Amino acid sequence: MRDYHDFLKEVLISEAALRKRVAELGEEISRDYEHQELLLICILRGGVMFLTDLMRHIRVPHAVEFMAVSSYGVGRRETSGQARITLDLNTNIRDHHVLLVEDIIDSGRTLASVLDLLSTRKPKSLEVCTLLDKSERREVEVPIKYCGFKIPDKFVFGYGLDLDEYYRNLPFIGVVDLDKYNKEMGTV
User: Fold this and answer.
1) How far apart are CA 108 and CA 142, in angstroms?
2) Residue 139: which of 114, 112, 107 has the closest Cα?
3) The pLDDT value given to residue 166
4) Is the pTM here over 0.85, yes or no?
5) Is 53 a catalytic residue?
6) Catalytic residue (one of 53, 103, 106, 133)
7) Residue 151, phi then psi, degrees to nearest 5
8) What is the pLDDT of residue 81?
């Protein structure tokens, strides 16, 4: 893989802005769930960096669970619209306050499928916290209680979001120059 500088169009959200907003979200969640236990469910893999930073700012007792849901695949730039659970929960969520932690919501199709599935398991409450909301691409409305940033319809990567499974480790969220990236990868 090439150095990300070769196809980084712009830094959309800086490391400092991410840190500040994640801390604010943690405070808001802590207030809302005061005197309650919380189960955070992270959608793998993109949500991991966001989850770990967010957890540090949540003061209420909370447990963590993971799900893996596939709707993209390597080389795909848009969701297929069909969510496939590739890793399910190990915890029974019945009568738990559940907060689903996502990296990005665009069409809403994948998240709607996950919410439908989880709601059948009878949690006490089920809410969504997303780092990024790309609402311009919304095809299915989903309830978002906590949102880090609303972003335009740009292809983003970094801070957990991948570009063909790479670059999740970047401390900021950048925009991909797809023309340069495709040229670098020989897919033009």
Assistant:
1) 6
2) 107
3) 92
4) yes
5) no
6) 106
7) -125, 155
8) 57
Exposure string (b/e) for 7-29, b if CB count within 10 Å is 16 or more?
A: bbbeebbeeeebeeebeebbeeb
User: Using an 8 Å Cβ cutoff, are 33 and 40 in contact?
Assistant: no
Distance CA 150, CA 2 (A): 29
Q: What are the sequence ranges of the domains in the chain?
A: 15-151
With tokens 């780092």, the residue in question is 131
Between the alpha carbon of residue 13 and those of residues 99, 119, 151, 175, the distances in Å are 24, 32, 9, 9
Span 15-151: which CATH code? Answer: 3.40.50.2020
Give per-residue pLDDT as tens, 75-119.
Answer: 555 555 567 888 889 999 999 999 999 999 999 999 999 999 999
Give every residue of the chain whose pLDDT is below 70, as ranges: 1, 71-82, 185-188
The pLDDT value recorded for residue 86 is 87
Q: Which residue has 């189960």 as its token pair? A: 39
* CA-based nearest residue to 172, from 155, 156, 151, 158: 158
Q: Do residues 162 and 46 make contact, with C-beta atoms less than 8 angstroms apart? A: yes
Cα–Cα nearest to 62, from 82, 32, 86: 32
Strand, coil or helix: what is 10?
strand
> 133 near 144, Cβ under 8 Å?
yes
Residue linked to tokens 């495709």: 182
